[in-house]
Amino acid sequence: MKLSHFHLPLTLYLAAALVFILKTANAQTTASKTASDLTRIIISAPIPNPKLERDICHAGEQGIICDPHNILVDTANIKADEIDSFESILYGALSDVELKSCESGENPVNVEVGIALVRRMDMTRYLRDPKYEDEDEESIKDIAARQFAIETHDSWGIGHAECHTGIMLFISVDDRAIYISTGAGLKKVLTHSRLGKVMEGMKRYLRQGNYAMAIRNGLVQMRTYIEEGEPTATEKVTVFLEEYGLLLIIVLGFGSFYLVGLRQERRQREEYAMVRSHLTQIERDRAAALQGEYQCSSCAICLEDFTQQNEDGMWTLGSDGLPLKLLQCGHVFDETCWQNWARSGQGDPTKCPICRADVGGIAATAEAGTADLRHRNAPGDLHVPHRRFDENMYRREMGFRLLRLSQRYPRYVRPNMVQRWSQESYNGSLVQDRTFQNGDPSRVKTSNSRSGNGHSFGRSASSGPSFGGGRSSGGRGGRW
């Protein structure tokens, strides 16, 4: 009996010891896991090269995005298998832009872009550096973002090796920091003030956590500035007044420079640029539809932008200054374009030109059964909200817009191109289509003097799938 009493407490003691050991091991495992997770979300510069470490960067086929924390998939409703398509859209935003002034020779070189998104920067070296001991935490974040962008730009070698035509767009999400690093070859077109405007346009989407849309809009705005060329005298004066408040320099006679040359060649280039602008807008709208964010902002008949929005962000006035014609199917047009379309005999006036839906009950009809084509929508008549279209719904509108482009600019957009671009299986860039590029007046003029290597920026094909070897020459950063 005494032996039995002795063994019972001993068993309890052993069980309690075992429980203590298991809890201690579990606590150590949890602490180790927490430290591991913290290491994963904090990253040091330079960031891995997406062309060389595609899996780590979650990069697509083009290899221009490094997103080690998978931020785009987590925040932009982009599926993992759609990253390649999204990256191709971003690649197309700048890859065909050419700079014609470079010390390497007469042949133009392309702009090259790299994008890096991280959850948080490792700022240990900046916090420990005596040089920054007087800086507050927010200032150190700005300093770190600049160094991250420049070091990554140089490490990846973005841009032409001699002309330095690269752009590095760096975003640190938790630090709410952004920096755009540019090569020396872009300094004259992507000036300090222009980069500031680019970032201001991105901040709206960054604050919403829509990093994909912020990146896309930033690249499109930079493309616009590059294509415009160096700032005009008017823009320089405006920027100077905004930043300093004093007017010291007035440039005269700048406009006369544009009168030199053949008027016919200039007109053709302007027409080609207009078509390319429309195609770029269609690509932007297609990207927005892919994310369920597309909202019509221009007339599909004349392709001109609408001019006024209400407090809810809905467009109310067309390019003709009249209230919009909104159909019950959700498609919207300039009032004048709709009237002309209905009267011209180009199509059935009882059907929507885009989706062929019946318009007998259009939102603008004042009374049931009224079909007077002269009736105008009053602002208060727009009871049907503008619909947001997904990618499949947008394809029909995209086909109609391409057809209208072909009718207005048959020299550059041919029927066989419209047919190919409108196919559901076509996911390529419109402005990079070889047939369309062959119609570029400037390209036709210089085609005989170019080499036949195809890809015109970066190193030769033998150097492997990497960037061109360019370096950073600074840039501009900000916070949101």
Describe what you observe in this structure.
With 480 residues, the chain is of the alpha/beta class. 43% of the residues lie in helices and 9% in strands. It contains 15 helices and 13 strands. The chain has helices spanning 2-41, 54-57, 71-75, 83-94, 124-128, 137-156, 192-208, 211-228, 233-244, 263-290, 335-344, 391-408, 415-421, 434-438, 441-446, and strands spanning 42-43, 65-66, 98-99, 109-110, 112-118, 120-121, 166-172, 177-182, 308-309, 315-317, 325-326, 332-333, 475-479. The protein has a 5-stranded mixed beta sheet with strand order 2-5-7-8-13, with helices on both faces. Strands 1-6 form a two-stranded parallel sheet. A hairpin with a 4-residue loop joins β7 (166-172) and β8. The longest helix is centred in the first third of the chain and has 40 residues, at 2-41. The radius of gyration is 29 Å and the shape is globular. It starts with a helix and ends with a strand. The model is unreliable at 1-8, 27-39, 362-386 and 447-465 (pLDDT under 50).
- Secondary-structure-based class equals alpha/beta
Mean pLDDT: 77
How much beta, percentage-wise?
Answer: 5-15%
Write the element-wise H/E pattern from the N-terminal end onward: HEHEHHEEEEHHEEHHHHEEEEHHHHHE
What would the principal axes of the Cα set say about the shape? globular
Report the sheet with the most strands, covering strand number, pairing sense and barrel closure. 5 strands, mixed
Number of helical elements: 15
Q: How many whole angstroms does the radius of gyration measure?
A: 29 Å
Helix proportion of residues, in percent? 40-55%
End-to-end C-alpha gap: 77 Å
The overall strand count is 13
The stretches of 5 or more residues where confidence is low (pLDDT under 50) are 1-8, 27-39, 362-386, 447-465
Widest sheet, order of strands: 2-5-7-8-13
